């Protein structure tokens, strides 16, 4: 069958019409002159360093927008979170809820802060949250926890790799003591071995308490890594602290069946009357939409099936001081909607990669701490509850957006709330 080409453009899209070969060469060639603006080499926060940076930047933008008086007063608080600091960016924060969560660790009606610049997003999660609450709340269960780091060791032959592994499997208790000596919260639970030819990948899996834990597991694994290099009777040709098997900040299919961070599932039963009242559609239409879009996800090569977990998690992570880049892995999972035996709607979500914490990272910064405090989820003992809240928030968003598509309201809502 001939391939259809609907484009009538004859020009190469990345070239301007007047780009002759010499101009193209000039634009793309290396330039070695000194930069016009050179900032202070020190990455740390101090009044002197800030003043030097803004001496160079003040001609480009209004200093007071990024470095307002409150930000300047709190500048020292950011020393463990940022380098080459020049100020803070203000994002609008909305609140969705009340959202009733009936979880193993989270049991309350939550008002959930969401930081975003996308119109209609908070309104959508607010509608889904209120629907869940009207239905009596969503059940939520944390299923598993684990954060990984995966060093890799390269050998000359499979024989050497096999002998190395035979030694490694006798060392777990010793590795555990070394790793846990670097942290008061982390626990080394397991080490899995993956051999690929003459390469050996070790998957170190930790529990990280109430911290999200990426830095914690990196530091702990680094200590064991260097112990192995110094003490293994079988010396690798080369080794690296991470061999990219952990799935860190990358969507991957492995953790869809396992865990990275916190694995949570949540469900809700909603009566036909509530579906019609809040979403203006029917359980049958929502279930049918789920079936069709599951096929669409398979055709696109999607990992997991969901409508828009990333919207909820990005807004929640930014508001609450989480590592926003982890949305790339956290936003995979499975949404399922069915007509239940009573003719209502059954909906569930399962998220195996929720990278959340209530201590460490950005959680202690003023605005982020305040957002966690709105949910009474700041500090020790709260991370498991935050993971269950995050899962139910995703469930609320799935209900709302699927309802909007089924009722034909999706475009209308964006036109109304995102108009210029």
TrEMBL record:
One record GO biological process: coenzyme A metabolic process
Amino acid composition bias (Polar residues), ranges on this chain: 23-34
Region (Disordered): 1-37
PROSITE patterns in UniProt: HMG_COA_REDUCTASE_2, HMG_COA_REDUCTASE_4
One protein family per Pfam: HMG-CoA_red
UniProt keyword terms in alphabetical order: NADP, Oxidoreductase
GO MF assignments: hydroxymethylglutaryl-CoA reductase (NADPH) activity
Entry's EC annotation: 1.1.1.34
Family as reported in the entry's similarity comment: Belongs to the HMG-CoA reductase family.
Protein name, as recorded: hydroxymethylglutaryl-CoA reductase (NADPH)
């Amino acid at each position: 069958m001939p391939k259809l080409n609907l484009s009538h453009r004859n020009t190469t899209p990345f070239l301007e019409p007047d780009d002759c070969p010499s101009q193209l060469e000039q634009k793309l060639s290396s330039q070695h002159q000194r930069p016009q603006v050179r900032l202070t080499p020190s990455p740390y926060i101090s009044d002197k360093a800030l003043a030097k940076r803004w001496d160079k930047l003040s001609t480009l933008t209004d200093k007071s927008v990024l470095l307002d008086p409150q930000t300047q007063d709190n500048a020292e608080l950011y020393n463990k979170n940022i380098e080459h600091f020049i100020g803070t960016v203000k994002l609008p924060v909305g609140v969705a809820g009340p959202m009733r969560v009936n979880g193993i660790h989270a049991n309350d009606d939550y008002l959930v802060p969401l930081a975003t610049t996308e119109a209609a997003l908070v309104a959508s999660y607010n509608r889904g949250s209120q629907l869940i609450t009207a239905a009596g709340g969503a059940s939520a269960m944390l299923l598993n926890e684990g954060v990984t780091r995966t060093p890799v060791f390269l050998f000359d032959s499979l024989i050497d790799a096999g002998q190395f592994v035979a030694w490694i499997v006798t060392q777990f208790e010793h590795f555990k003591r070394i790793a846990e000596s670097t942290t008061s919260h982390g626990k080394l639970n397991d080490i899995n071995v993956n051999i690929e030819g003459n390469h050996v990948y070790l998957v170190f899996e930790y529990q990280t308490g109430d911290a999200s834990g990426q830095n914690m597991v990196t530091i702990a694994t680094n200590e064991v890594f260097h112990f192995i290099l110094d003490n293994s009777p079988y010396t690798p040709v080369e080794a690296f602290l991470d061999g990219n098997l952990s799935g860190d900040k990358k969507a991957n299919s492995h953790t869809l069946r396992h865990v990275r961070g916190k694995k949570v599932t949540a469900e809700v039963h909603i009566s036909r009357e509530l579906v019609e009242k809040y979403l203006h559609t029917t359980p049958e239409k929502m279930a049918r939409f789920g079936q069709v879009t599951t096929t669409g996800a398979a055709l696109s090569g999607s990992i997991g099936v969901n409508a828009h977990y990333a919207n909820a998690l990005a807004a929640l992570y930014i508001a609450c001081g989480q590592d926003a880049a982890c949305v790339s892995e956290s936003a995979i999972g499975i949404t399922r909607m069915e007509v239940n035996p009573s003719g209502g709607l059954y909906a569930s979500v399962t998220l195996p990669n929720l990278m959340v914490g209530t201590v460490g990272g950005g959680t202690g910064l003023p605005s982020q701490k305040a957002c966690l405090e709105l949910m009474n989820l700041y500090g020790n003992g709260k991370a498991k509850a935050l993971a269950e809240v995050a899962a139910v928030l995703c469930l609320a968003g799935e209900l709302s957006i699927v309802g909007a598509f089924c009722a034909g309201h999706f475009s209308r809502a964006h036109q109304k709330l995102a108009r210029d």
